[in-house]
Structures are given as C-alpha cells and as structure tokens.
C-alpha cells in the first residue's frame, strides 16, 4: 500500500510541472479557425489515448488480482 501512495504522489508532482501546456494550447486554439481547433483537439485526444489505455489495463489487472486473492 505504501508503494501505491508513493507512486501516486510522484505522478501528481510530475503532472503539476506539465500543467502549463493547457494554457498554451488554449491560447493557440483561440487564434485558429474551427477546423484547425478541432484538429488540435483530435490530436490531443489521440496522444492521450495510449497512456490511458495502458493505465486502464494495469488498473484492471491489479483489480482482478486483488479480487482473486479475497
């Protein structure tokens, strides 16, 4: 349990350092037309898809293994 808390804190701290990218993307998208802004949003979702799938898969495996022990 202690490892999970430490890993969560490290992920939280590392995420804070990259949060400025959201404001930059917002300012860039505000200067674009609708088609380009939709393309930018699609690219962001495309780039976020793989890490979310990996985290979801690992979470499911962890959940399944913890339920099988009970």
Describe this structure in words.
The chain has 70 residues and is mainly alpha-helical. The chain has two domains: 1-31, no CATH class; 33-70. It has helices at residues 2-17, 20-30, 34-69. It is elongated. The model has no long low-confidence stretch (mean pLDDT 78).
Helix and strand element order: HHH
Q: Structural class per helix/strand content?
A: mainly alpha
The number of helical elements comes to 3
Mean residue pLDDT: 78
Q: What share of residues are in beta strands? A: under 5%
The description of the largest β-sheet is: none
Distance between the termini: 16 Å
Helical proportion, percent range: over 70%
What is the number of E strands?
Answer: 0
Spatial shape: elongated
Radius of gyration, rounded? 17 Å
- As residue ranges, the low-confidence spans are none
**How many distinct domains?**
2
Task: Describe the secondary structure blueprint for this structure.
Blueprint: H1 2-17, H2 20-30, H3 34-69
Question: What are the defining features of this structure?
Answer:
2 domains, 70 residues, 90% helix
In summary, what is this structure?
With 70 residues, this protein is an all-alpha fold.
């Amino acid at each position: 349990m202690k490892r999970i808390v430490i890993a969560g804190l490290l992920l939280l701290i590392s995420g804070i350092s990259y949060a400025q990218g959201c404001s930059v993307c917002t300012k860039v998208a505000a200067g674009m037309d609708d088609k380009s802004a939709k393309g930018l949003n699609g690219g962001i979702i495309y780039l976020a898809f793989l890490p979310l799938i990996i985290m979801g898969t690992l979470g499911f495996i962890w959940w399944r293994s913890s339920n099988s022990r009970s």
